[in-house]
Amino acid sequence: MTSALDSGVGRRARRDTPHQRAWYWYDWANSAYVTTTMTVLIGPYLTSVAKAAACPGLADGASCRTDLDVLGIPVSPGSLAPYTLTVSTLVSAVLLIFVGAVADRSPRPTRLFAAFAWAGALAGSLLFLVAGSSWQLGVVLLIVANLCLGSSLVIYDSLLCRIAAPDERDRVSSRGWALGYAGGGLLLALNFVLLNVHDALGLSQGMAVRVSLLSAGLWWGVFTLIPVLGLRDVHGTTAAPVEKQAGVVGGSVRQLARTFAELRRYPQTLLFLLAYLFFNDGIQTVIGSSSLYGIEELKFAQSTVLGVFLLVQFVAFGGALLFGRLARSYGAWRVVLTSLGVWTLVVTVAFFVPAGALGAFVALAVLIGIVLGGSQALSRSLYSQLIPRGREAEFFSLYQAMERGTSWFGTFVFGLVHQLTDSYRWAIVALIVFFVLGGVLLSRVRMAEGIREAGNELPAVV
């Protein structure tokens, strides 16, 4: 196994190693898809395609009262995108845990990482084909892309433990997130220009959106080359027990059964995961539903919402670096806990923002940007301290099932509240419960005790 310590990186080192620099680039690569496709475009676009199927000839901005028939279940067109994310995460709950167990026993985890990343990039690129009323194709491709994204991130996140010593992980994780927001913001800026000049280029708005979806998939695939090549000499772990006669797959299945039985040995890790389930579901639902909220509830043009999200990307770049610095002084646990209070404020204020109030919407976006990157980056590094060595991917699979656009309970609640009230305002304010419960649970996690339970070294500041 190649690790930060094996490669001579001192515990107090502050300079990035070649492995760390290569690792950062996958945040840059996949964030283009997460930002352009999942966060900004796919929710409103899939909703418009679903409305075209359910209510042909519907005027722009009009409400569609006809439900779609999804496997015999009536679904409001406005709830299709949140429900699709819910389904992808329910499947992830099973798939990603298995992927993690296999990855820990794979002699070449980078190859497995590459396979999932490029399969996801292909599915993301093929979203270009979703047009007219073909919402079924959009649902299938979005689920496939999200499953592959989650699978690749299980392996990617687990490599943090192998390329960075305990005292380096807050810094390394924060820099990765910061680069991700820079990359996602750059492509979003290019797509912002495209969506604003599509008439001059002879493109319809729908075609401009489809080209933007294609660009996000291609960006994801091309830039994945950098971490794949830079981490190709990182081998599988030898610290986890391997049943050679059972093979990689058979041994992984047996190890999974042991892992669930052994979780009670790591009560602080389990408590952190439970807290993360709640507050990350809230964060991911706010991120994934904000463009839908801005367009459908606050009545902004899609180009306006895209511009506001572009601002969020670059504010989040600085926010991630800022939170990394704060963690060095105050500890990542305290910083993340404080950020949850800010998220609660964000959701509360969003409920009261009047339709068309651009200044209030922009101010809210800046506040989101400040806490967005930092809370996610430090959650990743916090969790890395709480997992036993040699089982990083297996434990990160539990973490990743609740990560980014794969949250399930939050999107389900958001979609359900909208379906019951026909209002995105009540849907967004319902998310307060996720931040409150997540904060209460996180406040009870005893980090130092959990790090010792996992057999890891304590960082200088917990």
Describe the fold and architecture.
This protein has a two-stranded antiparallel ribbon with strand order 1-2. The chain contains 18 helices and 2 strands. The protein has a single domain, classed as MFS general substrate transporter like domains (Growth Hormone, Chain: A). The longest helix is centred in the N-terminal third of the chain and has 37 residues. The two termini are 26 Å apart. With 462 residues, it is an all-alpha fold. A hairpin with a 2-residue loop joins strand 1 and strand 2. It is a multi-pass membrane protein. Pfam families: ATG22. GO terms for molecular function: transmembrane transporter activity. This is UMF1 family MFS transporter. It is found in: Cell membrane.
Instruction: Kindly state the percentage of residues in helix.
Output: over 70%
Number of helices: 18
Rg, Cα atoms, Å: 21 Å
The major sheet is characterized as: 2 strands, antiparallel
CATH level-two architecture: Up-down Bundle
**Overall geometric form:** globular
In N-to-C order, the SSE pattern is HEEHHHHHHHHHHHHHHHHH
Average predicted confidence as pLDDT? 84
- Would you tell me which CATH topology applies? Growth Hormone, Chain: A
Uncertain parts? 1-13, 238-246
Distance between the termini: 26 Å
CATH H-level homologous superfamily name: MFS general substrate transporter like domains
The total of beta strands comes to 2
Read across the widest sheet, the strand sequence of neighbours is 1-2
Number of individual domains: 1
CATH class annotation: Mainly Alpha
